[in-house]
Structures are given as structure tokens and as C-alpha cells.
Amino acid sequence: MKELLLAIYRFRGFIFGAVKRDFQSRYKTSMLGGIWLVIQPLSMIVVYTVIFSTVMKAKLVGVNGTFAYSIYLCTGILLWGLFSEVVSRSMSVLIDNANLLKKLSFPRICLPLIVVNIALLNFIIIFAMFILFLVFSGNFPGIVFFSIIPVLFIMLSFSIGLGMTLGILNVFFRDVGQLMGILLQFWFWFTPIVYPVSILPVWAKEIIAYNPMAAVIGAGQSIMINKTVPDWTTLVPAIILSIVFLFVGLVLFRKHASDIVDEL
Fold it and tell me: Which end of the chain is more exposed for a tag (fewer CB within 10 A), N or C?
């Protein structure tokens, strides 16, 4: 582990340089450039607010407020978006960078870290717009808001570990990426993001209880909607899975580092 951390530190310039190039290339040829970073999240918040709070009059049981459902939905979609982006891009990052892996010698673990940093940067920008919306609409949860930090840490750990594990497997078994792409779509609807848990029958609630992301998303929604600190015990399964997948992912990276290039 110490050797791995030292290797990451030595190649920190390579990691941040790749993140910077991705960020610049995304808006380099557009006329508005980085302004799209503001337009896109703002348009998402406006659409959800207008459609679900005004047109559909969607409400949450036991929660009052014009924007309650919009905040519930935006919180879930933003958190899921970060999780999904890290997992899906980590699965294909080794295959997508096959030429780079064959030409340069660097720790393979740098590629998943680049993916995480890019996804996290995008999330921070969008989430900042969401926070401004909460402040100006009078729905900012106050000091409880900072409880989102450990929730994000747990979710990122889980997504990184899962993404690394699947990324290695996808190099040797290409069906893994195709299958997981489909499973992520089902996983989204299996997670209470668009719908509240309260509307589900008892048998459905019992099934969803086995979904670690349901607890993570629910913790974030509890902070933003109910303005209360989440029940940390519900996140124990996600924490355990994070540790397991991080361990398995690191072991696979170390064990098959030399085999990856041969398979690409």
C-alpha cells in the first residue's frame, strides 16, 4: 500500500494534467466555452422545478414545501450521476487508453484516479449550482448540510472500488462492460430517486433494503429534505462493500498489471 501511494504521489502531475486536458478539450471548440458548465446544471434544476413542483404538483409524504420533490429528485440524480459516471468510466478506462498503456510506463492505478477526479470536478460544479438554488429558495439545510461529506466519501469509495474491479475484469472479459451498462439502468430504477420509498408496498421495501445505493441516496435526501443527520447504521452495508471492492480492485491491479497490456 505504501509503494502504491508513493507511486501515485510521484505521478500526481500526470493525473492532474490528464484531468486538465479533459476539462479543456470538452469546451475548447464551443463558442460559449466554460459557460456550459453553468447552463447545463441550471437548466436541469429549472426543468425539474417547473415540471415536478409546478406542473405535476408532486409532493412527498410528510414534507411540505413548493420545491420539496424537486430537491428530493435533484439530490438523488446528482448523487447517482457521480456514482454512475465513476463506475461506467472506470470500467472502460483501461480499454479506452490502450495506446497510452502500450507507449508509456506509469502505474495503472492512475487511470481510475483520473476518472474519479474528472467526475468529481464535474459534480462539484453542478452541486455548487444546486446549493445556490437551495440558498436562494430558502431551503438550505444549514449546518446539517456538512453531513453530506461522509456520505459522498462512502459513495465515492464504493464506486471507485466497484469500478476498478469491473475495469480489470472488463479487460479480460469484455461482456462485463456490456452487462454492467444494462445493470446500471436497472439499478437506477431499483434505487428510490424518482419515487419516494413511502409509496412502495412492504415487499418492495424489503427488497430495496438490500440495495446499498438506496441507503446512500436516502442519506443524502434526508439531509437535503428533512434537514436531519442520516441514520449512519443504514450505511454500514455500503461501507463494508466499499472496503471489499477497494481491496479486491487493488489486488487485481497489482496482480494483473503486466497482463493488461497483453490483453488490450
Answer: N
Helices (H), the chain: 2-10, 12-27, 36-48, 68-96, 98-103, 110-136, 148-172, 175-189, 202-208, 212-221, 236-255, 257-263
In a domain, 93, yes or no: yes
Lookup: cell for 254: 497489482
How many residues make up the chain in this entry?
264
pLDDT (tens digit per residue) in 52-95: 766 666 667 667 777 888 888 889 989 999 999 999 988 888 88
> 240-253 as b/e, with b when 16 or more CB fall inside 10 Å?
ebbeebbebbbebb
Please report whether residue 30 resides in a domain.
no
The SS3 assignment for 63 reads strand
- 109-151 pLDDT tens trace: 788 888 888 889 889 888 988 899 899 888 899 999 999 999 9
- Cα distances from 107 to residues 31, 110, 166, 168, 220, in angstroms, run 37, 6, 18, 14, 34
The Cα-based distances of 145 to 45, 127, 212, 216 in angstroms read 19, 12, 21, 15
Within 10 Å of residue 153's Cβ, how many Cβ atoms? 12
Residues 6+ apart with CB under 8 A from 204: none
Task: Confirm whether 31 is domain-assigned.
Answer: no
- Host domain of residue 116: 2-23+37-263
CA 256 – CA 184 distance, rounded (Å): 26
| Position 28 in a domain | no
Q: What is the sign, positive or negative, of the torsion defined by CA atoms of 194, 198, 199, 204?
A: positive
Phi and psi at residue 63, in whole multiples of 5°?
Answer: -125, 120
φ/ψ of 60, rounded to 5, equals: -105, 140
- The pTM for the full model equals 0.88
Q: How many domains does the chain have?
A: 1
